[in-house]
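The authors assume throughout that readers already know how a fold can be written as discrete tokens. For illustration, here is how one protein appears when written out as sequence plus structure tokens:
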Amino acid sequence: MSRGGYSPRPRRPWRPRKSRARRYLEYGLTLVVLLVLLVLVDRINRGETQRLSGEAVVNDGDTITVKGERLRLRGIDAPEFSQTCLRDGVSYACGRESTRSLGVLVRSGALACDGWERDKFDRLLVVCRAGDVDINRRQVENGWAVAYGDYADAESSARQAKRGLWAGEFERPRDFRDRHGHEAESAHDWFATIVNWLRQTIGW
């Protein structure tokens, strides 16, 4: 102890300051580890693929319900049920036309849908087949949905042949939702579900 009862603080051991290059290297390694973890999680999720099969209720041009489970067709985007488009300068209910097209496809063979991921509305994202028909691709090929992360070749084919939506003018579904808010995607969903259930079960 020094005079007057003062005790000097113990000195901290000297540590060399990290260079900027070393800090960047550590950041880079941390990022790589995070990316590896994300890939592993994605592979685990993909390993838990769910398959649903059976009769489907069509909600709109890219959404169906099978055994009480809401399914969103992966890689495509269809007009909202309430959406209208132009054909020969005349407005028509393209959302309902798209819904009707999907209804025909899901009844064209034994339906089976596979998916492992959910969207923000908790719908399982799926690829569906009816027999040998890839429904997701066929809906785009028929022109009643647009590519949404996949099936760009099918969209190009439909556009060149002027099938479905491409026979006239339309607003892309994503832009329609941005203008009307996401309630456009759900506001008519309950109504569409009831109408299509009646149409499919009792022929109304």
